[in-house]
Amino acid sequence: MCRNNKVLVIEDDKQRRAQLDTILSFLGEEAHFIACGGLDEHIAQHPEGGDYVLILIGDRCSAWSEALVEKINRWNDEVALAILGDDEADYQDFAPDLKIKVIGSVALPITYNPLVDILHRARLYCEAQSANKKRAQRRPVHLFRSLVGTSREVQDVREMMTQVADKDVSVLITGESGTGKEVVARNLHYHSARREKPFVPVNCGAIPAELLESELFGHEKGAFTGAISSRAGRFELAEGGTLFLDEIGDMPLNMQVKILRVLQERCYERVGSNKTVATDVRIIAATHRDLESMIGEGSFREDLYYRLNVFPIELPPLKDRAEDIPLLINELVSRMESEKRGSIRFNSAAILSLCRHSWSGNIRELANLVERMAIMHPYGVIGVQDLPAKYRHVDYEEESFVVGGSTSEASGTAVVSMNDTPLLPEQGIDLREYLTRLERDLIQQALNDCGGVVARAADKLAIRRTTLVEKMRKYELQR
């Protein structure tokens, strides 16, 4: 967790300074103020970065530039920047790694809500940067993510993978497009005795039928028009390792015969050569098609099917494991943060809405949505109203209820967004009772999340510890 908690304000205007000092003091934030030309001196006095979570820079500061952002980034790479003013165009042309550091602007005149929102986003940025530093040993990319989950379906897949990973037999992975078939294949390879040898994927549906034989087995010079030199095929490149034949159902029949021969005799010939080459390759195949139906239609060989289907693994569609969606979102966000491509959070109502979606594109569709939201709302908190229309399965009244309370379908992920705007019921509302209940519930959630540690809960709620203790006493809440 990011421990930085100070705010640095670079501003010459005395009136803005006074306004910010008043609001930041009310929020319990420790603020330091320096003049526009005083940054170099301040950096010299605080070479360790100063424990700042946010730097607010006046839009009238003549030093404001990409060079200034780069200087601050070298000094403190965990701190976020925001502009005091309405003009966000000043940083749109910055280099990507510097542009992402500027998380937005605070509109003038300065008011409470925009400042609270920018502070929240700054803490998310700081937490993401801090986590990146701690992630010294990243998991290999092929051990990602669609295997994340606690559903019975995913546990069954993991159990089957454990049984077959170190067995040198062919595996057939089936499932809808986007469910993570290549991820499973890479995991099987990584946990086998062949892990030090290559893993070579081939998408049989993406290679023209007339080129597939050359792609798999290689060719000799002059074997066909355009073969100006000899070329190794995928079998040769995968020697000693694993060859992953993705979308095996799209392979033409004449090639199916040749793959069957390799599986039976462990040898092949390059195109244009009569020399037989022995091979030691484990084959893992995958398809989203129903191969048994294709056998009945005569478009897939039955003998090849049984050679490939020694150990079948079927991956469940995402709609059948909706309880894994919050964990998958966390993994996808962690991946973006580790690759320094930004960060984002979803409130509990948005996650509940996503859990109700049908996900025809499965995990690939979910990953696409998370990346799109991170681009549109960098370091923001996504509510239902921020989601594309087809993902909105929770109405506004239900959203306000979920955000104020909790949901079993998205437990542990409840977040309140400053952008959430609950609608006033037609019959009206007791505002004082509503706000009291909302404040009490959020304090209790913070205490639960932090194991009853008041200081950590106060930090999570962005209030002083003494203020939290008083509110706990007021609502008779226990640690």
From TrEMBL:
Domain Sigma-54 factor interaction: 147-375
Keyword Transmembrane helix found: no
Matching PROSITE patterns: SIGMA54_INTERACT_1, SIGMA54_INTERACT_2, SIGMA54_INTERACT_4
Protein name per the record: Sigma-54 dependent transcriptional regulator
Lineage of the species this protein comes from: Bacteria, Pseudomonadati, Pseudomonadota, Gammaproteobacteria, Cellvibrionales
Record key words, sorted: ATP-binding, DNA-binding, Nucleotide-binding, Transcription, Transcription regulation
Source species: Gilvimarinus algae
Highest taxon above the source species: Bacteria
Gene3D superfamilies associated with the record: 1.10.8.60, 3.40.50.2300, Homeodomain-like, P-loop containing nucleotide triphosphate hydrolases
PANTHER family referenced in this protein's UniProt entry, alphabetically: PTS-DEPENDENT DIHYDROXYACETONE KINASE OPERON REGULATORY PROTEIN-RELATED, TRANSCRIPTIONAL REGULATORY PROTEIN
Short name of any one Pfam family annotated for the protein: AAA_lid_14
InterPro entries referenced in this protein's UniProt entry, alphabetically: AAA+_ATPase, AAA_lid_NorR, CheY-like_superfamily, FleQ, Homeodomain-like_sf, HTH_Fis, P-loop_NTPase, Sigma_54_int
